[in-house]
Write a structure and sequence with these properties.
Shape of chain B: globular
Strand content of chain A: 25-35%
Largest sheet of chain A: 6 strands, mixed
Oligomer: heterodimer
Bound molecules: adenosine-5'-triphosphate, magnesium ion
Order of helices and strands of chain B: HHHHHHHHHHHH
Number of domains of chain A: 2
Structural class of chain B: mainly alpha
Shape of chain A: elongated
Structural class of chain A: alpha/beta
Number of domains of chain B: 1
Strand content of chain B: under 5%
Radius of gyration of chain A: 24 Å
Order of helices and strands of chain A: EEEHEHEHHHEHEHEEHEHEEHEH
């Protein structure tokens, strides 16, 4: 199958400052990719280039087999800008109806779309009276129009409440299951960790990490944490046998390098009945992210 | 293509309605038309023309100021306002050509302007008929004034879009629009007048002057309406020159300008990166 999005050696300079530096990325159908990075890392810039909104200096970008911003590409790509805005004098329904017409769909579908993002009640109110999260939902609704092959979502969950965030990711799962590719940027690492297939970390315009969460864990080679709960009375004995363990109540906490995880576990299980429970805590995306960022000097 | 233009036009018309632009334009035109009708209600027997033709002549000199003004006021915000609000990037990622976006706005704004012109001129016409049943002979002139006013409006709407694209900020676009209005409608004529006076019947007056008049859409509009109507006697300003220029030339200028202005606006809008 052909890739939905191919970027190779993409470079973009703003007034001598490199906003993107030789970034390469491929997104397959049905893949959910998270774009992470500090403020000013180049996430929004990369998205605008994919949409053909701004030109780039060098490299290659192919969107659904066409040049970014060409009519063919625009017909298959949906976009949710960061800080999405609409004319305050229009109602949600009128605005979505216009976007539907622009994509060649029936404007009558507007209410259904607003329903999908939980805006049914406010559909006939002017957008000027909406809260920030409600405006964000109008933005989401317009990104669902038609059957886009690629959704480019710039901080889609900003301003959404916790329940709406979960609903939003459920919506994305459905779209991805139907074969849509999704590229989203976010600063909320915990939600991205569980809900995306690929993670790309940008730092100062360079791609410093890319792959599945497991790939990143391997690459970062961060230590694994082990939480051992001893049975009554055995804690001190086990603590002595496990150098480097820190005692927190009845629990012993120790860390070991990724490749010594199994050996350490074997030693712990060797205590047999003296152990009540063992918990293995792999490094979280947040740990990996700070590790990568620190290494990069950000 | 048509559905995309009409969808944009529908949205823009709603916005114009809610921003009170429709009300403002209609009331403005109606008010000025009625004032002119009242002012022109002095006996006109000695001119030998009907009441409506006299009204049309004064409406022409009104429209030449008012129609470009209303058009520029409606259009200067069209692109710059979207840039400022942040609505432009999203719309540009839709499968819609930039010229279609401009055409949608133009259709909506032109509808507002046409409505205002129809109400204003309609009222003036009714007032003329009420005072003089013989006014029916002035109807063709009123009709001509109507459609040329709409075309003049289209020209200045597109000019407004072009300035809006060039400025990219509403405040800058407003300044440019006022500059264009002053330049095209007021200063241009003054400049020509000064040039003709100093030239004293030389090459400029005989060769360049007619072309200068045709090159300005506002002057071509006035020229065409005054030359085509019998009421040149009631006109002022460039009326003297009106007779020297063939009617088809001023008509051509009135017809070509809207397209030229739209082409300029499209070119300027294409250069806007959100
Ligand atoms: N139009 C522009 N002109 C000049 N510099 C720009 C422009 N747009 C972006 N930049 C610069 O490019 C860099 C990347 O910006 P970008 O908006 O892509 O960051 P981001 O990763 O989206 O950040 P955030 O998380 O804050 O949204 C920044 O240094 C920014 O200052
Ligand atoms: Mg950003």
């Amino acid at each position: 199958m052909t890739s939905t999005l191919t970027i190779s050696a993409l470079t973009k300079t703003f007034a001598g400052e490199k906003a993107l530096d030789a970034v390469s990325l491929t997104v397959e159908p049905g893949m959910r990719v998270a774009l992470l990075g500090h403020n000013g890392a180049g996430k929004s810039t990369m998205m605008k280039i994919i949409l053909g909104l701004i030109p780039y200096d060098s490299g290659e970008v192919m969107v659904c087999g066409a040049a970014p911003g060409s009519a063919a590409a625009r017909g298959q790509v949906a976009y949710l800008p960061e800080n999405v805005a609409f004319h305050p004098a229009l109602t949600g329904q009128e605005q979505i109806a216009q976007y539907l017409s622009l994509r060649g769909e029936s404007p009558k579908l507007a209410l259904g779309l607003l329903d999908r993002v939980g805006l049914h009640q406010a559909a006939t109110r002017r957008i000027g009276t909406y809260s920030k999260g409600m405006r964000q939902r109008v933005g989401l609704a317009q990104a669902l129009i038609g059957k886009p092959r690629l959704l480019v979502l710039d901080e889609p969950t900003s301003g959404l409440d916790p329940v709406s965030r979960r609903d939003f990711y459920a919506l994305l799962d459905g779209l991805a299951a139907e074969g849509a590719s999704i590229l989203l940027s976010s600063h909320a690492l915990t939600e991205v960790e569980a809900r995306t297939d690929r993670i790309v970390i940008l730092s100062g315009g360079r791609m410093v990490a890319s792959g599945t969460l497991a790939d990143l864990r391997r690459m970062a080679a961060l230590p694994v944490a082990l939480h051992v709960t001893a049975r009554n009375g055995h804690a001190t004995e086990i603590e002595r046998a496990l150098p480097g363990a820190i005692r927190v109540g009845a629990e012993l906490r120790l860390t070991c390098p990724q490749d010594e995880k199994l050996a350490t576990l074997a030693r712990i299980t060797g205590f047999g009945d003296k152990i009540e429970d063992v918990e293995v805590v792999p490094p979280s995306l947040e740990d990996i992210y700070s590790h990568v960022s620190r290494r990069d000097g950000q | 293509m048509m559905t995309r233009i009409l969808a944009t036009a529908g949205t823009e018309f709603r916005i114009a309605l809610r921003n009170r632009w429709v009300a403002i334009a209609v009331v403005l035109m109606a008010l000025f038309a009625l004032v002119l009708s009242a002012a022109g209600s002095a006996p006109t027997g000695d001119l030998g023309v009907d009441r409506l033709s006299v009204t049309v002549a004064s409406l022409t000199s009104l429209a030449v100021y008012l129609v470009p003004l209303v058009a520029l006021l409606m259009s200067f915000d069209a692109v710059a306002g979207e840039v400022e609000r942040g609505t432009l990037p999203l719309i540009l990622t839709y499968p819609v050509a930039r010229v279609e976006i401009l055409l949608g706005k133009l259709v909506a704004h032109l509808a507002v302007l046409t409505l205002a012109v129809a109400v204003g001129y309609g009222l003036a016409g009714v007032a003329a008929f009420w005072a003089d049943p013989g006014a029916v002979s002035g109807l063709p002139a009123l009709w001509r004034l109507g459609w040329t006013s709409v075309l003049l409006g289209a020209t200045f709407l597109s000019a407004g879009y072009a300035l809006s694209s060039l400025a990219r900020r509403p405040s800058g676009a407003a300044g440019l629009a006022m500059g264009l209005w002053l330049g095209a409608v007021v200063l241009f004529d003054l400049g020509l007048l000064a040039a003709v006076v100093t030239d004293n019947g030389g090459w400029f007056t005989t060769q360049a002057f007619p072309f200068a008049l045709l090159a300005n859409p506002a002057d071509a509009f006035r020229l065409y309406n005054l030359a085509a109507s019998e009421a040149t006697a009631a006109a002022a300003g460039v009326a003297g020159a009106a007779n020297a220029i063939p009617l088809w030339q001023s008509a051509a200028s009135v017809l070509i300008w809207p397209f030229a202005a739209l082409a300029l606006a499209t070119a300027a809008f294409r250069k806007v990166t959100p």
